[in-house]
Design goal:
141 residues; alpha+beta; 4-stranded mixed beta sheet; 3-stranded antiparallel beta sheet; 7 strands; 18% helix
Length: 141
């Protein structure tokens, strides 16, 4: 491999699988690249000196108003976007909502919508991280 420049360093993101008792999963529709218009898991960038678990909790609340508790690591997704010169590493966690707050879009500049979807009625297109996480979720059950 050739040496990387500062612009070629992997970036750290995170995602959350939030599943209701009926099995439906919360997805958000991305309003920005990469994968603009795709449906994906709530999540985002991990801040400097922030634990990944804290970033998951923070990002879910910032995007959906839900307060969650991390249950366990589900998978880690490598996402390559050569056209944008990006490489994302994104741990995806299974989380649980702490209360009965109704999920709602809190960042309309970044998200086009959100909804609860069952495995037999998923929207399209799905983000890479979401497809990978759902594969791991079905293996775990």
């Amino acid at each position: 491999m050739s040496p990387s420049t500062d612009l070629q360093q992997p970036r750290l993101g995170c995602g959350a699988v939030i599943q209701r008792a009926d099995g439906a999963i919360l997805l958000v529709q991305r309003g920005r690249p990469p994968e603009q218009g795709h449906w994906g898991l709530p999540g985002g960038k991990v801040d400097w000196m922030e634990t990944v678990e804290h970033a998951v909790i923070r990002e879910v609340e910032e995007e959906t108003a839900l307060q969650v508790t991390v249950e366990r690591l589900l998978c880690v997704v490598d996402h390559f976007e050569p056209a944008l010169a990006q490489h994302w590493v994104a741990p995806v966690y299974l989380v649980r909502a702490q209360d009965t707050t109704i999920a709602s879009v809190q960042e309309p500049e970044a998200l086009l919508g959100l909804g609860w979807f069952t495995a037999d009625a998923l929207p399209a297109p799905l983000t890479l991280s979401t497809r990978k996480a759902l594969e791991h979720l079905s293996i775990a059950h």
